[in-house]
Amino acid sequence: MADAVFVGMPKRLVGVNIDGREIEVVEGSTILDACRRLTIDTPTLCQLDNLTPVNVCRVCVVEVEGSRVLVPACSRKVEAGMKIRTDSERVRHSRRLVLELLASSVDMSLCSAQVQGWMSQYGAQPERFGAEAATVAQPVKVDNDLYVRDYSRCILCYKCVEACGVDAQNTFAIGVAGRGFDAHISTEFDTPLPDSACVYCGNCIGVCPTGALMFKSEHDMRAEGTWDEGLRGGVHARAARAGQHDRESHLAAGQQRHRGAPLREGAVWV
Amino acid sequence: MDIRTTGGPPTADEVAAVDGLLGTPDSLWEGGRRRPADDHFARGGRAVRSQRHLLLPLLHAIQDRTGWVSRGALEYACRRLSIPPAEAYGVVSFYARFALKPRGALTLRVCDDIVCKLAGADEICAAVDAERSPCLGLCDRAPAALVERSGSSYEERQIAPVTVAQAADTLRGGEWPDQTLSTPLSPTLSPGGRGGLLRRVAAYDPERLDGYRALGGFAALMRAREMGSEAVIREVTEARLLGRGGAAFPTGRKWESVAKATERPHYLVCNADESEPGTFKDRVLMEADPFAVVEGMAIAAFATGCEKGYIYIRAEYPLARARVENAVAQARGAGLLDIEIEVRRGAGAYICGEETALFNSIEGKRGEPRNKPPFPVEVGLFGKPTLVNNVETLFNVLNIVSEGGAAFASVGTKDSTGTRLFCVSGHVERPGLYEVAMGTPLRELLALAGAQDIQAVLLGGAAGSFLTPEQVDVPLSFEGTRAIGATLGSGAVIVFDESADMKQVLLRIARFFRDESCGQCVPCRVGTKRQEEILERMLVERNGDRSADVMLLSDIAQAMRDASICGLGQTAANAIASGLTQLKVLNG
Ligand SMILES: Cc1cc2nc3c(=O)[nH]c(=O)nc-3n(C[C@H](O)[C@H](O)[C@H](O)COP(=O)(O)O)c2cc1C
Ligand code: SF4
Ligand code: SF4
Ligand code: FES
Ligand code: FES
Predict the structure, then answer these.
(1) Is the dihedral of CA B30, B31, B32, B36 positive or negative?
(2) Which terminus of chain A has fewer CB atoms gathered within 10 Å of its CB, N or C?
(3) Is the CB of residue B82 less than 8 Å from the CB of residue B22?
(4) What is the dihedral of CA A130, B463, B385, A66, to 10 degrees?
(5) Chain B CB within 8 Å of residue A112 CB
(6) What is the pTM for the complete model shown?
(7) Phi and psi dihedrals of B454, rounded to 5?
(8) CATH code at B429?
């Protein structure tokens, strides 16, 4: 007989109350996990199941009884007896403002239909900050044959940094630089990608939810007007249509698209 | 991890700066030249990476020596510490102090923050080629400046008050200003006399341990050791001491949690980042009574079982840093310390006063706050249980250990025990540091400092709120200020008389938060920017739809308060909201 293997202590179930409904989830789950079990639609922008939560976008905030401020559903672990509200006036207000503030400063037009849906669901009107409101608009970075970086579309969700670094690739070619409204994703000293540590693994393209990072083929086809959103769909649109959130589905969608997309001269898929 | 460096080699000066701190590298793997053996044995790895926390000290060493951080220098530091250059670039570019472009050897920073603005800082900035700086913690002697000269013998001086002529002369390479801040220009008043927190200020030579000991120094530490750690924590709890760093958390409870934490090691961090505009109390304490800081840390470490202590002093306090370093060395030399205390230098980031941002900064990372929970008492510096206390909090502990918790709690009010330091500045005859019993009416404090024709008082600094002349009877206690929707905050009390242009004050506060937001979370990163834009439109350009703009500001304020990660975003709208409702800035 084989030796016994210790598989760890059995996980306990924790009971919480969300919007008046009781649910038991495995201890260590996040509030978001619990919400999803109850099919409560919770907007998320910086969260992916296989990346460490950075809880920076704050669009997923919920109200937890006894907490002075709202808490991020994507990273906060459930505790026994927690009373959570996901649709209070306070929650709706913060979610709306997060979406409005983002969309007023970033070009979010290539975000998935799901994100556009949240915009209208929460009544976001980014134009109300005025035409003069500062944005992160800047020239597109095209410095290699494979990837295009259009940081006018970057919402600073940190996903690409995590995918390039500790959570997947361990290459650390990009990081967050600057601070405050000037914070941005950058290689060291903003050096072009070919001089950076980038190994063209494509992980960042796969996780980017806004189209800020894009395969050059898609970018060129969009510029030429030959890109058919309905036929092929962008990485993001496709992943969203499938109703999937995780990185694999993003990547799978991306690869599917490559097969359909013409290879450009000089381009090498890695 | 593959470290790719393409920026060219460092200069000899840069190598000297880095090697001065780390020693010369033994192999290619640690950033040195390739030797034949390096092709056969890999060195470094985990051991090298565990030195990540030395990144900020290295960056300081480079910049002190050469005036800026070049790409070659940064990459050399990266190879020595095994840090990916993109990540290190993210760190350097986070801190306002580090320059990524070459500069001359002399750099003058002039404070143009709230109090210095009242004292004519803008004229100085217009007349000379200086960098503008947020509050330098010298508001009692406004206007203030800081000058540094890079090179192999780096020097740095605080100048306050500074004049246009002096600023211009310093920049021309004129006489190097004296460092004479140790004689307080400001009155430092303790009502309690013998027992006050300020009783040793100007009573001994802050560079001499024997002077401190002659005044009874280190008796409290001996007493604490006799009492035992549990008894010390009991007294602190009985004293009902609340933290003086701004969040007013019960100190005894914090100490007990750290003492009980099973994870090891435990770390102690003394928070001396003091960057709240209008605040300079911790500077005075460190400059004039640095040994007491060391003794307070030793007691805290003893009571909570901390193996190592750090004190994080803001970059703009060179004298305080030198004095505390000296005090640590002398106390250690005399065998009075049984833990190691390391002095860390900030790098120009208000956010690093937030405790978890401070941990990240010590760890060599961007000063981005962490989401709580977990709290520092469980997961703090280097992921270990950590006790964080403000300098003034630790000063109170000395008195609690000497006199007992009950005696301490007999001063002040029921919910706010003891005394409190207030930094009074702005339009007063006697700006300075005042110690009064908790619960003292603000009116009394203002009378002590000599305030007249008051238009408004900003209580608690940029993160605090404005009071009108009708509100100055508020008792200076946690509960008293809370009752009128205000806060004691960091103890900053900025007074404005009728001559002050409050619009400019509000705009400066808005700019402060926009500058100092770490940029991590959306409500604060974009909210502080929008807040500034809207305020500018309302107060200066005077266009746009006034009522729609008021509504926008209040919408932003609520989201920042509710959904930001840390206290910076959560309070970034307070002063502005109270200013718009309390002051007459929108009239006319
Ligand atoms: C933006 C921000 C800045 C802060 N700055 C300081 C500071 O300069 N000094 C300080 O002691 N606490 C500061 N704090 C509070 C600390 O996070 C922490 O609560 C405090 O150091 C704990 O010490 P105490 O319990 O002795 O007050 C700041 C908090 C925030 C949110
Ligand atoms: S580039 Fe894309 S993945 Fe990276 S931070 Fe910006 S939006 Fe997120
Ligand atoms: S509230 Fe502001 S300072 Fe605090 S974490 Fe968010 S962006 Fe950074
Ligand atoms: S999804 Fe939770 S903070 Fe971004
Ligand atoms: S030193 Fe200038 S405002 Fe404090």
Answers:
(1) positive
(2) N
(3) no
(4) -70
(5) no
(6) 0.93
(7) -70, 130
(8) 3.10.20.600
Token pair of A139, please? 């020239």
Q: Please determine, for residue A33, whether its predicted confidence score (pLDDT) is greater than 80.
A: yes
Query: Which residue's C-alpha comes closest to atom 8 of ligand 3?
Result: B518
Query: According to the model, what pLDDT value does residue B124 have?
Result: 96
Residues of B in contact with A98 (CB under 8 A): 522-523, 559, 563
Q: Which ligand 5 atom minimizes the distance to the CA of B280?
A: 4
Domain carrying residue B234 = 209-409
Q: What is the pLDDT of residue B181?
A: 56
Q: Are residues B254 and B374 in the same domain?
A: yes
Distance A134 CA to ligand 3 centre (A): 19
What number of CA atoms fall less than 13 Å from residue B510's CA on the CB side?
A: 28
Q: What is the pLDDT of residues B39-60, one digit of tens each?
A: 776 666 677 778 999 999 999 9
Q: Do B89 and A130 touch (CB under 8 A)?
A: no
Query: Do B576 and B519 sit in the same domain of this protein?
Result: yes
Q: Relative to the alpha carbon of B94, which ligand is closest?
A: 3
Residues of B in contact with A177 (CB under 8 A): 89-90, 93-94
In this structure, the dihedral spanned by the alpha carbons of residues B571, B577, B578 and B583, taken in order and rounded to 10 degrees, is 150
Residue ending a domain, among B385, B409, B433, is B409
Q: Is residue B197 one of the residues assigned to a domain?
A: no
ipTM (interface pTM): 0.93
Encode pLDDT of A110-167 as tens digits.
999 999 999 999 999 999 999 999 999 999 999 999 999 999 999 999 999 999 998 8
pLDDT of B185 > 90? The answer is no
Ligand of minimum distance to the alpha carbon of B278 = 5
Calculate how close chain A gets to B440, using CA atoms only, in Å. 28
A 2-61 near B (Cβ less than 8 A)? 54-59, 61
Q: Which residue has the higher pLDDT, A9 or B161?
A: B161
- Among residues B378, B409, B440, the one where a domain terminates is B409
Residue B537 carries which DSSP code? I
Evaluate whether residue B228 is within a structural domain.
yes
- Which of B89, B515, B534 comes nearest A186 by C-beta? B89
